[in-house]
Design goal:
By secondary structure, this protein is mostly helical. It is built from 16 helices and two strands. Strand 1 and strand 2 form a beta hairpin. The N and C termini lie far apart (98 Å).
């Protein structure tokens, strides 16, 4: 394995860690940590929110990692070869069962994680594209899905009439809609990325020349833009976002005091981070050696057709099996056999009444 490949893998592992730790903390800090007083032209640091920023950032980052693993169907090939997560965790005695192995392999092959990993492997190993560029292109292609993940729960929470759903239950209904939307998003992204990842990777290469930190800069920029747009939309619709603060995770688990607009950051976090983390994990899966059963039947048929169409070497001598001539019967023997057979046919009627 080349040193460049090891370096790119290391970078992607660092990206995964930063996506679930640093990115949400920085996103919350840019919103709440600094308080600007335009009248006095002063900037104050809100130290009372530092604890909430760190805890909420790590909590939402860890939640996003779990959502990416679960909905994406994360399962390395080594786990599938042993029958899946259940035998690996010791929850089943059927470790090494061929039936479980076949089911685990088929599940991995059809999962969003498996399809994305196979796509990355084809683009990097088959077509020779840069791994970091492919990762950045896939991150850009995930932006429309992230926008939908922001809009769908918000539309459900505000669009369902109060006669159908009580106001205090609208948040739970919106989260149910978010789960369905996330399940669909991770399955749509491989389909969309299969045809556009090359163009997105080219755009990512241009972005890399502009900023050396472009692997994390697009996420932060999208976080800021999405939060600004969402806050403006809620203000224009005159939505009271403080009514949902009591059901947020940090309020329920830690009984912490949250800012009035914390639900906006919650929606942005669970929309941006799971798709970004899922994409990075899938790219890492595509950097490993791909077993033949993971490539699918189409790849095996293609290789078989190429082998059949391959022309034989000119240097090879074509072996022709010798054809042996059948022995030519002797004419005298043929005549003797004919006379004997004829005499038998003539003598046969006269011998019927010999007895």
């Amino acid at each position: 394995m080349a040193v460049e490949d090891l370096y790119q893998r290391f970078v992607l592992y660092i990206v995964v860690v930063l996506q679930v730790t640093l990115v949400p903390i920085v996103g919350f800090s840019l919103t709440y940590l600094l308080e600007v007083d335009q009248g006095n032209f002063s900037i104050a640091v809100r130290t009372e929110l530092v604890y909430w920023i760190v805890v909420a950032g790590l909590l939402y980052g860890f939640l996003s990692l779990l959502l990416a693993l679960f909905f994406g169907g994360y399962r390395p090939a080594s786990v599938a070869d042993k029958g899946g997560w259940v035998p690996i965790l010791g929850l089943s005695r059927r470790a090494g069962d061929p039936e479980l192995i076949d089911r685990a392999r088929l599940a991995l092959q059809a999962s969003p994680y498996g399809r994305m990993a196979r796509l990355v492997h084809e683009k990097t190993n088959g077509e020779g594209q840069d791994l970091i560029a492919v990762h950045g292109g896939l991150q850009l292609l995930a932006v429309p899905m992230q926008v939908l993940l922001i809009a769908i729960p918000l539309l459900i929470m505000e669009g369902v009439p109060e006669e159908i759903v009580k106001p205090d239950r609208a948040f739970e209904l919106g989260m149910a809609g978010y789960m369905i939307a996330l399940w669909m998003a991770v399955r749509i992204q491989p389909v969309v990325s299969s045809g556009l990842v090359s163009y997105a990777a080219m755009f990512r290469s241009v972005l890399w020349k502009i900023s050396r930190f472009s692997w994390v800069l697009p996420i932060l920029l999208f976080w800021i833009i999405a939060r600004t747009f969402l806050a403006a939309s809620l203000g224009w619709l005159d939505v009271d976002v403080t009514q949902w603060n009591e059901v947020q995770l940090e309020t329920v688990l830690l009984h912490a005091v949250v800012p009035e607009t914390a639900v906006i950051d919650f929606l942005v976090a669970i929309s941006v981070l799971p798709m970004a983390t899922f994409t990075t994990l899938s790219v890492l899966g595509g950097t490993h050696d791909m077993p033949n059963w993971m490539k699918g039947q189409g790849s095996e048929l293609e290789n078989l057709q190429m082998d059949l169409l391959e022309a034989p070497d000119e240097d090879e001598e074509t072996e022709v099996s010798p054809i042996y001539d059948a022995p030519i019967p002797d004419e005298s023997e043929g005549e003797a056999e004919g006379d004997e057979e004829e005499s038998r046919m003539i003598d046969l009627p006269f011998r019927l009444f010999d007895d």
